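Box 3.1 A note on notation
Throughout this textbook, protein chains are presented in two layers. The first layer is the amino acid sequence; the second is a token string describing backbone geometry. Keep the layers aligned when reading.
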Amino acid sequence: MTLLPCSNYKAALVLPLLILAGCGNNDPSLTPANNLKDLPSQPAPAEVPYDANRQAYFGDLHIHTGLSTDAYILGVRTEPVDVYKFAKGKVIEHAAGYPIQITRPLDFAAVTDHAEYMGQARLAEIDIPTTQKTLAEILKTGNVFSITAAWLQSSQEIPEHGFAPNGEAINRTVNKNAWQQTIDAAEEHYQPGLFTTFIGYEWSANAGDITAHLHRNVIYRNNLVSDLPYSSLDSHNPEDLWAFLDKENQQGKVAMSIPHNGNFSRGYMYASADFAGKPLTKEYADMRMRYEPISEVVQIKGSSETHPVLSSEDDFADFELLGESLFTQGSLPTSYKGSYVRDALRMGMEFSHNEGFNPFKFGVIGASDSHNASSPTEESDYTGKLPMLDGSAGLRTGKSLLLPNSMNPVTRWSSGGLAGVWAESNTRESLYDALQRKETFATSGPRILVRFFGGWDFTEQQLAQEDMVSQAYANGVPMGGDLTQAPTGKAPSFLIMTMKDPQGANLDRAQVIKAWLDSEGVSQEQVFDIAAADQRQLDPKTNKLPAVGNTVNIDEPSYSNTIGGSSILAFWQDPDFNPQQEAFYYVRVLEIPTPRWSTYDAAKLGTTPMEPTTIQERAITSAIWYKP
């Protein structure tokens, strides 16, 4: 659930609260509240020295705390410092009353609380204790109708401002204090070379109503930041946000905006018209690409890579899809166009061809959007997004709800993702600059390593050379880069290097997704199976790899790394290259099937797991573009 500062906000929140009536009664998945001091912290990572050939760093740039209104009224009491403690491997307490800890520390993280009414719900004490019970008690034995009533009694709508905590309109003093707390936490926990904190917030706007999300996270390059966050109470127009960032940038306050959940935008996130419905212009494209170089492609509220309706020939397009609404598993009667990343990148090429500018030439990252001050990306230890909605296995799987699963959004939520960034060092400036140049990739949770280079003179023999990476940088471009003006008679060639998560599942395959413009200037796409991790060969009739198999034991649940492989090194050259046609290429790497979080939850509950019972986790790189 995300903050929706409009007149629809109250109705949007009440529905999920009401469907939790009787939630979690005797839910065996709720872990007893242990003494947090008895649980050891993870060892701190060693400093990684500067590397001109760049290292991969994993992090999460989308985490909320109790300073966000939606998080606070749904049980979260954490503060920004808790995000960084968790990311560093320390134990924090989940709002439902049990300890949580990440298996491995992250390399970087950002607190991105909602800018709208930041800190006001906390100050107003819109609180679960009005029921005289803790959230942990309510999840086990309580009835949340009383919580819904208490919240409705303690809030009202302000005509000029929409929803306001405790009936209070915007309180800039409270917002500024909360913003300063966010800044202070980031400054306290920043350890250049060891662990990077980014100062940021979420701008939570919509295109007309709550079913059309235009939400963005604003991330600053260093500690020179705005006096106050820019919120959707200032404007719902993304162009106004970019204008604000442009003015701030001129004062040295450098920041970018990262869109998320295009899959919930009803086509508005990557629309072919501006916010007012007018045709896009070069000025629009320049501003958008200056301040939005990357987008989230996977997170808890699902995947925004592509959809089977848009990519009917893609066998793996049906991945963690949630339709177009937070409140139903089905789809609203609108187009999928404008809601998914691959389609947006294709549309960007069409703009480039027809109009001479490209408004959608961006890279990708993954994130969680956790509201528990955590990054719950592990399927086997998923702890949910918001405690009162999905803070226990019973809530997440719908086993303790009154309404059918088709009306319960959290049954389809994912476990979130991570951002992979190739940078010279683990510092704000180095990581930010890598984000800006789009040398980034997304994973659906595992720490899969993937590199992707394109050039005109690469050879398969380079894969065995010790200086392969330095030569690839010297003679080509990495993910996020551009190839131009093909030499006569040459097609682009690519080097793909990927390794499994050392603590995770084996790899299945590596694929290249290519899109290009045909002779009519219309974009087309094709998915190429490039290599299997276990030496499986392409079917000569279909040019596709056979399925890797499935070792998942649903009952335990578990899987075995007896199939697939640990790494893929591959050389690939476009067999159908036309030097007159614009194109882009990106890599997708798949793991072997493993149990989904809902299967682990079913085992805890002793129930039958929902479909799908397995998941093929993945990594998705930013593209490499070609233009004649």
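The chain has two domains: 9-441, 448-627. The CA atoms of residues 242 and 291 lie 6 Å apart.
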